Amino acid sequence: MNLELQIPEEVAHLLTSEYVDLPRAAVEALALEGYRSKRFSEGQLRQMLGFSSRMQVHAFLKEHGVHLHYSLGDLEQDRETSRELEERVPGIQRPA
Description:
mainly alpha; elongated
């Protein structure tokens, strides 16, 4: 989706002097606010910003001082992944 914004010239001048790529900065600001307010998931954030991995999302959030939302569902998914890896990869053991 393409979006056109009307910004007063004075404000536009300030923004363009601060941001080399103003459209990208606007998308990032929308993405950050959506994630902070829990309207966007990590996956939606990744898609919106065109990142190919969760690690890029995590680095982006860290760079902007935003903490990850980590739910009980996320924990359970990580535990299941760990169990699957233990079954598939010889020599992997759970910590005591």
